[in-house]
């Protein structure tokens, strides 16, 4: 029997492809976090659709609802008083879409669940290229986090975080997804909308650019 791996699936393109990668060698358990993001309902639908595509049983699905990130604010994804920026591809500063310490919080939930269910790996679709300035999307962060996991779990726990996409370009991720038959048509990337993707936010810009560079039509609808 395959070892068990938890995949953090937001519903976005990167996490969708990450699930496809993990599915090659592992039995999947899928984790989704509702944290008050603007497109929470649409991301949850994408997650459910992806879980159904891979036929994940309910006992290996965890959907966690946390509200403190939206109460804290400080991010245009969780604070409705802040505007979602249009894509600024040449800007090097941390964008307003950065959610303070988000990946650490989400990974902590995954580690706790992983200890209980005996998972061996946690997969997250972090990508350094499309996250300018995001401190929690860089390889040194994950090296440090894995040291924390080793220090903060039971001696019998054997659990590490894997980032198979971290050094990939978005076009490479699209091509990988297609080669692995990942259900990219079920994924959702837009920061603003829940019906037709806006096409102008940073996430939409990167997604459309990636599909164009990969020479493939993006299967989701745009406004």
Highlighted features:
223 residues, Rossmann fold, 5-stranded parallel sheet, 7 helices, 5 strands
- Largest sheet entry: 5 strands, parallel
CATH C-level: Alpha Beta
Number of DSSP helical runs: 7
Fill in the CATH topology. Answer: Rossmann fold
Going across the biggest sheet, name each strand in turn. Answer: 3-2-1-4-5
* Low-pLDDT segments: none
Kindly report how far apart the N and C termini lie. 45 Å
Mean pLDDT: 95
Which percent bin holds the helix content? Answer: 25-40%
Protein architecture, described:
With 223 residues, this protein is α/β, with parallel strands linked by helices. The chain has a single domain (4-214), classed as 3-Layer(aba) Sandwich (Rossmann fold), CATH 3.40.50. 38% of the residues lie in helices and 11% in strands. It has helices at 13-25, 40-53, 68-72, 102-117, 139-152, 170-179, 202-214, and strands spanning 4-8, 27-34, 61-65, 121-123, 160-162. It has a five-stranded parallel beta sheet, sandwiched between helices. β1, α1 (13-25) and β2 (27-34) form a beta-alpha-beta unit. α6 packs across α7 (202-214). The mean pLDDT is 95.
Please summarize what this structure is:
With 223 residues, the protein is of the alpha/beta class. The chain contains seven helices and five strands; from the N terminus they run βαβαβααβαβαα. The protein has helices spanning 13-25, 40-53, 68-72, 102-117, 139-152, 170-179, 202-214, and strands at residues 4-8, 27-34, 61-65, 121-123, 160-162.
């Amino acid at each position: 029997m395959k070892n068990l791996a938890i995949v953090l699936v937001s519903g976005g393109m990167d996490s969708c492809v990450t699930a496809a990668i993990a599915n090659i060698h592992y039995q999947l358990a899928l984790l989704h976090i509702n944290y008050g993001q603007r497109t929470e309902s649409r991301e949850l639908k994408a997650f459910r659709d992806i879980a159904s595509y891979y036929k994940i049983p309910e006992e290996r699905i965890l959907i966690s609802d946390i509200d403190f990130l939206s109460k804290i604010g400080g991010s245009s994804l969780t604070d409705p008083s802040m505007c979602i920026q249009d894509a600024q591809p040449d800007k090097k500063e941390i964008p307003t879409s950065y959610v303070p310490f988000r990946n650490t919080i989400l990974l902590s939930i995954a580690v706790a669940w992983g200890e209980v269910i005996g998972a061996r790996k946690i997969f997250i679709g972090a990508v350094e290229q499309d996250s300018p300035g995001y401190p929690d999307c860089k390889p040194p962060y994950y090296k440090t986090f894995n040291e924390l996991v080793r220090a903060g779990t039971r001696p019998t726990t054997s659990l590490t975080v894997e980032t198979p996409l971290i050094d990939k370009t978005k076009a490479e991720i699209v091509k990988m997804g297609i080669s692995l038959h990942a259900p990219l048509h079920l994924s959702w990337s837009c920061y603003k909308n829940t019906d037709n993707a806006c096409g102008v936010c940073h996430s939409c810009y990167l997604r459309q650019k990636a599909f164009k560079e990969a020479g493939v039509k993006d299967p989701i609808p745009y406004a």
